[in-house]
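Thread title: Can someone regenerate the structure for this chain?

I was given the following input by a collaborator and told the matching structure tokens would be attached. They weren't. Posting the sequence so someone can regenerate them.
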Amino acid sequence: MSVPTVAQALPAFVRWAQANLATSTVYAYQRYVTQFVVDVGDMPLDQLTPSVVKTWSQRWHPLQAMQRFASWATFEARLISTNPLARLQLPATFGRTRVLSEPQLASLLRASSLPFRQLLLALRETIGRPQELRGVRWHEVRQVGGVEADLSSLPTGQCYIACRTYKGKKRRRTPAAFRVIVISRRLGRLLVRLAQRGVEPGDCIFRNTRGRPWSANAVRCAMRRLRLRVGLGADLSGEKVVAYTLRHTQATLLVRRGVRDRLLAEVMGHTSPRMTQRYVHLVPEDLAGAIRKLERR
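Best answer:
Regenerated them for you:
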């Protein structure tokens, strides 16, 4: 029995990914594996080697996609007996460390289109993940007691989003539980203005200029145009400002204001405070402030 080629196995891999992985992950995997076939050419799965793949790309995401594809072909689909990319070494990655200053954040908000500004404001106010807020719907907006929120309750600070789809859900002790995203008074006032235009319970709250729910790619493109508009380039380490930067910025701000690790982890939707520490990026001035408090004692 002949071994299938990469192109022959790809449709089955996509079907499996659609049933088990997030939509954005499926899109990325399909795009990278397809690009491999276009650039390198089709070949039997057992002829894939780390050398071939690394000659094609040195970037983490394309290499990881090919590694996951080969792993699926070996263990889930059993198309080959040995994973040919098991020893593929992925390049080292460095987590995001960039934090926006207040003037930088203000300039981004001022220069953004109204629909994108609404999404950015929601990211700033909730410290939520972009993928969570892109998909949140009106029927998920609740008030204390679990009942659906009405317009008068939204600006009170007593409402929240009962997010059903979020990262790390499977690692929770109770995977069926929703994640609470608190609605601040400022965000509540924004939701009132949006709701007054007439909405259906199943509608996504945040929509782009065409009235459609934001996709991951649309957010990336909007942020890229916004960076160019305000002249906000990469920092000294090459890190660019993205939508996720607002999450890092606000988490750092809460730590500066004394929010405890355990509470911050709950606000951010983390299962452990250790994960939250990756989002906190204090500067020397913060450390000097801590020493000054010690001196006052």
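Residues 252 and 283 are 10 Å apart (CA to CA).
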